[in-house]
Write a structure and sequence with these properties.
The protein is α/β, with parallel strands linked by helices. The chain is built from 8 helices and 6 strands. The relative contact order is 0.16. The C terminus is likely disordered.
């Protein structure tokens, strides 16, 4: 098994946080009325995207009736609708829709993950749960390190969780730590070269794609695409038109 696939498999078996285990499983039993016919995933949700990704999108945690239901990051909720639509319009996703594990969605050069892999009550992990889950993100960063060039971090919680993870994975984080802001940009140098080699990664701050932000206009689709576009350029992922949008060639 490839290292990233093995890591993802181990993530799904984690039971380190009793409060999160109880909540994710309770949500899976009770279910939302609209999803009574679903068999909820109700486990930790691994990252999603290819092992050679050069751009990482870091969120907060799976939604109770989104990733916790479907088993894939940002899949089956309105936050994911906004994120994957933006990735699709930039040619980084095969579809603007993320519905279920078997919907055929693929990503190009991008991986989506979060610092907390279980759905938390009220979408609010505790600092202790964030820190307990950190080793998974550190290992993910170490596996991705040879090709990783940029990361878009969604929201202040993700930013606060990501910086120590990058430090633990071998990048040098400035002191004092950079503060989160939409449009913030900081380049981290790889510290002591390891077996997978040194390299820079540039972090971009972006408001989270939560309904609170997207419904109020604090984060618009254009704002999100602007950050993703800049990060994709840094990650050497030239934009191209999504499949099916190019005019047919005549010959």
């Amino acid at each position: 098994m490839e290292p990233l696939a093995e890591l993802d498999a181990r993530v799904t078996e984690c039971a380190a946080c009793p409060r999160l285990v109880a909540w994710r499983e309770e949500v899976g039993r009770v279910k939302r009325a609209a999803y009574q016919g679903w068999t909820y995933w109700a486990r930790p949700v691994p990252g999603f995207g290819p092992p050679d990704a050069s751009l990482l999108v870091i969120g907060l945690a799976p939604a109770a009736h989104g990733g916790n239901r479907t088993g894939r990051m940002f899949t089956g909720d309105r936050s994911g609708d906004v994120l994957y639509a933006a990735l699709y319009e930039l040619g980084l996703a095969s579809s603007p829709l993320a519905v279920s594990l078997d919907d055929g969605l693929t990503l190009r050069g991008v991986r989506v993950t979060s610092p907390v892999h279980c759905a938390p009550p009220e979408n609010k992990p505790t600092p202790g749960e964030r820190d307990t889950c950190r080793p998974w993100l550190v290992q993910e960063l170490e596996v991705l390190a040879p090709r990783l060039r940029a990361a878009v971090v969604l929201g202040a919680f993700g930013w606060q969780a990501a910086l120590p993870a990058f430090a633990a994975a071998g990048w040098r984080v400035p002191r004092p730590r950079p503060r989160f802001a939409h449009g913030a940009r900081v380049t981290l140098e790889r510290g002591t070269p390891r077996a997978n080699g040194p390299g820079q990664v540039t972090l971009y701050g972006c408001f989270h794609v939560s309904q609170r932000n997207t419904f109020t206009g604090r984060l618009t689709p254009e704002m999100l695409k602007d950050v993703l576009r800049e990060a994709a350029g840094e990650a050497c992922l030239p934009p191209y038109a999504p499949p099916g949008s190019l005019p047919h060639a005549h010959g």
